[in-house]
Design a protein that fits this description.
With about 325 residues, this protein is of the alpha+beta class. The chain has 6 helices and 12 strands. About 5% of the residues have low confidence.
């Protein structure tokens, strides 16, 4: 009996090893297939992109690929194998070039990265300033706006606009930060506009500085206060998801990562949740599997024995 159970366990282990090897082989095949598809698209894209742009310019003289000529135009796209592409991403550090899809999608990631939102044409950055606490402020001539990012390039705030109202600009030309204030020079109006930090802004900056310094749990309180004041502030959800991940509360981290629409952080939290689940219930699962296997084997033996007894009984009656 023990020998048969041992053989059964060996067979089961061999099956699991074969499944793992098959999964590894599939992942490598899928990665190679994705690499091949990406390179095929890249080659065709490079051949057709310039031709498409030239033809587009000939059809409409105002449709130029350079944002200096027409910053409001839609980005030129090239269709390759049923998908639209807007250009090529070059990464010199790893000597790689990747095609860039016009629209981002999970399915498309196996071939190439994609544009999540926005356009490179409608923005003309004329000045950039970095504050003492590491906040990056970019001044856009086209929209008359100041885009503020943290040191990890996460968008925090958008200030200003074009127009004659207070806080509106005619032709922005420079900006400077001093303490918590942002000064914007408008060459069209010959004025300087001062943006002062609000209470909400100070809480966001406090949470951001703690988060970027690696104090995720300490940043939890300020991020929660941010959400009390603005329940749609995505950066706060990301901060709370990271804090919960650091604390080991993977379920809560998954919840906030989902609210932030952050698949990267959700996957991190899910991996932790899965590992914790397996660690907690691994013994129970193994025992349960062995009980099921043993029970199935015992039931099979019992049925076989019962069948033998019934056959013997029938043969005895026949005699």
């Amino acid at each position: 009996m023990k020998r048969k159970i041992g053989r059964l366990c060996m067979v089961l282990g061999a099956v699991l090893i074969l499944c793992a090897a098959g999964l590894l082989g599939y992942n490598r095949w899928d990665a190679a297939r994705a690499e091949k598809a990406s390179q095929e698209v890249l080659g065709e894209l490079e051949q057709t992109m310039q031709k498409t742009i030239t033809e587009h310019q000939q059809e409409n003289e105002t449709a130029a690929p350079q944002p200096v000529l027409d910053p409001t135009q839609e980005m030129t796209t090239v269709e390759v194998e049923g998908r639209d592409y807007i250009g090529v991403l070059s990464i010199p550090a790893v000597e790689r070039e990747l095609p860039v899809m016009a629209q981002w999608s999970y399915a498309g990631l196996k071939i190439a990265p994609g544009r999540y939102s926005g356009t490179t044409y409608a923005t003309r950055i004329v000045d950039i300033d970095i504050s003492d606490d590491g906040m990056i402020n970019c001044l856009d001539l086209t929209t008359g706006r100041v885009f503020q990012y943290d040191e990890e390039c996460n968008l925090l705030f958008i200030l200003g606009t074009t127009g004659d109202q207070v806080g509106g600009f005619k032709q922005v030309s420079a900006l400077e930060t001093l303490d918590t204030n942002i000064y914007v020079l408008d060459a069209g109006k010959n004025t300087v506009t001062i943006f002062k930090e609000t209470v909400f802004g100070s809480i966001v900056h406090e949470a951001t500085n703690l988060y970027n310094a690696g104090y995720y749990e300490e940043a939890l309180g300020p991020w929660q206060e941010v959400l009390k004041r603005d329940g749609n502030y995505r950066r706060a959800y990301i901060g709370i998801a990271s804090a919960m991940l650091k604390k080991g509360d993977y379920a809560e981290s998954m919840k906030y990562a989902k609210l932030a629409d952050s698949p990267y952080r959700y996957n991190e939290a899910f991996e932790g949740y899965r590992s914790e689940f397996l660690k907690e219930y691994f013994n129970i699962l193994i025992i349960g599997a062995l009980v099921l296997i043993g029970g199935g084997y015992g039931f099979h033996k019992w049925r076989k024995k019962k069948r033998t007894q019934n056959t013997a009984g029938k043969e005895g009656d026949a005699q």
